[in-house]
UniProtKB/TrEMBL annotation:
<dbReference type="Pfam" id="PF00448">
    <property type="entry name" value="SRP54"/>
</dbReference>
<dbReference type="InterPro" id="IPR022941">
    <property type="entry name" value="SRP54"/>
</dbReference>
<comment type="function">
    <text>Involved in targeting and insertion of nascent membrane proteins into the cytoplasmic membrane. Binds to the hydrophobic signal sequence of the ribosome-nascent chain (RNC) as it emerges from the ribosomes. The SRP-RNC complex is then targeted to the cytoplasmic membrane where it interacts with the SRP receptor FtsY.</text>
</comment>
<dbReference type="GO" id="GO:0005525">
    <property type="term" value="F:GTP binding"/>
</dbReference>
<dbReference type="InterPro" id="IPR042101">
    <property type="entry name" value="SRP54_N_sf"/>
</dbReference>
<dbReference type="InterPro" id="IPR000897">
    <property type="entry name" value="SRP54_GTPase_dom"/>
</dbReference>
<dbReference type="GO" id="GO:0008312">
    <property type="term" value="F:7S RNA binding"/>
</dbReference>
<dbReference type="GO" id="GO:0003924">
    <property type="term" value="F:GTPase activity"/>
</dbReference>
<keyword id="KW-0694">RNA-binding</keyword>
<dbReference type="InterPro" id="IPR036225">
    <property type="entry name" value="SRP/SRP_N"/>
</dbReference>
<comment type="similarity">
    <text>Belongs to the GTP-binding SRP family. SRP54 subfamily.</text>
</comment>
<dbReference type="InterPro" id="IPR027417">
    <property type="entry name" value="P-loop_NTPase"/>
</dbReference>
<keyword id="KW-0687">Ribonucleoprotein</keyword>
<dbReference type="InterPro" id="IPR036891">
    <property type="entry name" value="Signal_recog_part_SRP54_M_sf"/>
</dbReference>
<feature type="domain" description="SRP54-type proteins GTP-binding">
    <location>
        <begin position="265"/>
        <end position="278"/>
    </location>
</feature>
<comment type="subunit">
    <text>Part of the signal recognition particle protein translocation system, which is composed of SRP and FtsY. Archaeal SRP consists of a 7S RNA molecule of 300 nucleotides and two protein subunits: SRP54 and SRP19.</text>
</comment>
<dbReference type="GO" id="GO:0006614">
    <property type="term" value="P:SRP-dependent cotranslational protein targeting to membrane"/>
</dbReference>
Length: 443
């Protein structure tokens, strides 16, 4: 998605994760890379300069919070500021009134009609059955395109290719569907000239009185999206924007950031020609994907919450160095109580999900609880030297924990496979805290 922007930014983040030292020079280098990537994606130069200055100032002057390394801190700053560029939080389409009237606006070719189909499908999946009204009297094929779409989706359509009065069509459509929960109005994307088009939108808007006016913007136009959005915003109160064609668009970053500046939230994005190529726009998820970060942010936040950082660091180091004992595994399980099951935690580290041992993937909360009981029947000596746990010790531990011998053996098997997997990961990395683990898998 977004052409090279994602690739360039992901590479910058990988570089950052792999840097031996984080200092003024390396921060400036990272900022330069980000600048280059954004400018290539047609992000407005003023925005780029503002963003890079903020990232640089924060990275150089802010002290990393406790438990966060300078590297994690810079990663977090880049992430946060990029999210800011796109408007921070995601916004839902709140279907409150009945009928809930949605008016689509956008220039011809922006992908308006296709997007109406995508939204209709999205709403259908949520259990709604929207009806559509066609008021585009300028493009003869528009009605036919909607007819095919609505037939495919099995939803109602009102339109009349012989009626050239858009306002009349809107009024009739409103009447026909007054008992529907959701009515979507398609409008023209072209007119005699732009002023006429905008005037028609203003008139239509006063007739339809939309609960939500959605502007569709072609993502391939880059920062020009800003002026286009402003022009439409003058005709009606734009409630949200959908940016289309972000699949492979080199200028998508420019379009998204320009639109975010207009003030109306981007609620959805179009990522292809098929009806399912449509996503709710969530700046945080979007940016973390663009930066190739998986859910690192969540991982970092969760790691921060872990009560005993020393125990966490000790366990991580043990895990990565291969000196992993049952005592470390017990610590790991205790930590997991705070961070969630191991597979979930590991899945948040990009690239690591697939490497989780089979046994770990099958771990359930119930099993973890049982393992904890078994481990509490072991002596410290046994936990630190798991090799000594043979037949008679297994029987004693099983009796103490009130489980079968097989279950103790199963725990030992799980321990051994985890140890092996961790050793493999450690070899690639060299060990040293969650940050190091995270960096390894960003490479
Ligand atoms: N790659 C890609 N193509 C898209 C996307 N959305 C729409 N398109 C394509 O863009 C072209 C124009 O889309 P339409 O929906 O026909 O255009 P329109 O904006 O409705 O045009 P008017 O009805 O005249 O306003 C079509 O070929 C669509 O398949 C998208 O997200 N990605």
């Amino acid at each position: 998605m977004l052409g090279n922007l994602g690739e360039n930014l992901t590479n910058t983040m990988k570089k950052l994760a792999g840097m031996a030292v984080i200092d003024k020079k390396t921060i400036k280098e990272v900022v330069k890379d980000i600048q280059r990537a954004l400018i290539q994606s047609d992000v407005n130069i003023q925005l780029v300069l503002k963003l890079s200055k903020t990232i640089e100032d924060r990275a150089l002057n802010e002290k990393p919070p406790k438990g966060i390394t300078p590297r994690e801190h810079v990663i977090t700053i880049v992430y946060e500021e990029m999210v800011n560029l796109l408007g921070e939080k995601s916004h839902e389409l709140n279907i409150d009134d009945k009928p809930f009237k949605i008016m689509f606006l956008g220039l011809q070719g922006s992908g308006k009609t296709t997007t109406i189909g995508k939204l209709a499908r999205f709403l259908q999946k949520k259990g709604y059955s929207p009806a559509i009204v066609s008021t585009d009297t300028w493009r003869p094929a528009a009605y036919e395109q909607l007819r095919q779409l609505t037939e495919e989706l099995n939803i109602s359509l009102y339109g009349d290719p012989n009626n050239k009065d858009a306002l009349d069509l809107a009024e009739k459509g409103l009447k026909k569907f007054k008992n529907q929960k959701i009515i979507i109005f398609d409008t023209a994307g072209r007119h005699k000239d732009e002023a006429d088009l905008l005037e028609e939108m203003e008139n239509l808007s006063s007739i339809i009185d939309p609960n939500e006016a959605i502007l569709v913007i072609d993502g391939t136009i880059g920062q020009q999206a800003h002026d286009q959005a402003n022009a439409f915003a003058k005709t009606t109160d734009i409630g949200s924007i959908i940016v289309t064609k972000l699949d492979g668009s080199a200028k998508g970053g420019g379009a998204l950031s320009a639109v975010a500046e207009v003030g109306a939230p981007i609620k959805f994005i179009g990522t292809g020609e098929r009806l399912d190529d449509f996503e709710v726009f969530d700046p945080e998820r979007f940016i973390s994907r663009l930066l190739g970060m998986g859910d690192i942010k969540t991982l970092i936040e969760k790691a921060e919450e872990v009560i005993d950082e020393d125990v966490a660091a000790e366990t991580m180091n043990a895990m990565l160095s291969g000196k992993f004992t049952i005592k470390d595994m017990k610590n790991q399980f205790d930590m997991m109580g705070k961070m969630g099951p191991v597979q979930q935690v590991m899945n948040m580290v990009p690239g690591i999900g697939a490497k989780i041992p089979k046994e770990a993937r099958k771990m359930t909360e119930g099993k973890i609880d049982k393992y904890k009981i078994i481990m509490s029947s072991m002596s410290i000596y046994e936990m630190e030297n798991p090799k000594v746990i043979k037949k008679s010790r297994i029987t004693r531990i099983a009796r103490g924990a009130g489980v079968r011998n097989e279950e103790v053996k199963e725990l030992l098997k799980y321990f051994n496979s985890t140890k092996k997997a961790m050793k493999g990961i450690g070899k690639r990395g060299g060990g040293g805290g969650i940050n190091r683990l995270v960096s390894q898998f960003m490479k």
